[in-house]
Amino acid sequence: MINKLQNNKLFFLEGIKNIKQTGSFIPSSSFLCDGITKFVNSNCKSPVNVLEVGSGIGTFTGKIIKKLNSNDVIDLVEINANFCNILHEKFVLSSAGQGENKKKPNVNLINSDILSYETSKQYDYIVCSIPINNLSYKDFKELFLKLGSKCLTGGIFSFYEYIGTSFLMKLLRLHKDKGNSHREQIKKWIQSHLYEKEFVYLNITPAKICHLKF
After folding, report:
1. How far apart are CA 1 and CA 153, in angstroms?
2. Where does the pLDDT of residue 2 fall: very low under 50, low under 70, confident under 90, or very high at 90 and above?
3. Fewest C-beta in 10 Å: which of 40, 56, 134, 170?
4. Is 189 exposed, middle or buried (0-12, 13-18, 19+ CB in 10 A)?
5. Which listed CATH number (3.40.50.150, 3.40.1280.10, 3.30.870.10, 2.70.98.70) goes with 2-213?
6. Is residue 64 scored above 80 in pLDDT?
7. Which whole number is the average pLDDT over 167-174?
8. Is a pLDDT exceeding 80 seen at residue 98?
9. In the chain, what are the domain boundaries?
């Protein structure tokens, strides 16, 4: 309980310093956590690879890990060094210290901006908790095309945005001088891969979750 309070306090302080990076002052609710990780599942026939982008203090990470087996792998990409210290203690050390009775998946932690992260690996599931409401059109396009290219055939890419601060609405306002082309490009790309969407109102800031399938 003490560690949880300390981690939440750190999240709040990091939010004050850089709200564009954290997207919120308070970690996501369990309802949002359940929604965005709902399709993550282990496969008894072969190892599953999962990429979590913007892991923060591990709110979604813990839920994902519970769904995976010892042969599975989860890569955590987090830009904030202070958050990485928490992730390392909570998930990397516990995974490495299991010995022969290993039950948890292999956890790799990468302290990096996702746009700078290079890997040849393809993923079964990608969970993105980067606050897309704060992204520029350029970063949004680069991020989503990059993550989409890292999904295996049949893979699922899940993300969310806060309701009331819709990225698409902001994008439309910012790019009025360029007509509707940017808006339509993004809408068509998302709609072409949209598998399921849902709304989570029991969160400090209500959110819309989108699951894309490739």
Report:
1. 41
2. very low
3. 170
4. middle
5. 3.40.50.150
6. yes
7. 52
8. no
9. 2-213
pLDDT tens digits, 187-203: 788 889 999 999 999 99
The answer for 48, left when phi > 0, alpha when psi is -120 to 50, beta otherwise, is: beta
DSSP assignment of the chain equals: -HHHHHHHHHHHHHHHH-HHHHS-SSPPPHHHHHHHTTT----SSS--EEEEES-TTSHHHHHHHHT--TT-EEEEEE--HHHHHHHIIIIIHHHHT-GGG--SPEEEEEES-GGG------EEEEEE-S-GGG--HHHHHHHHHHHHHTEEEEEEEEEEEETTS-HHHHHHHHTGGGTTHHHHHHHHHHHHHEEEEEEE-SSSS-EEEEEEE-
Query: Quick check: 102 pLDDT over 60?
Result: yes
pLDDT of the residue at 165: 62
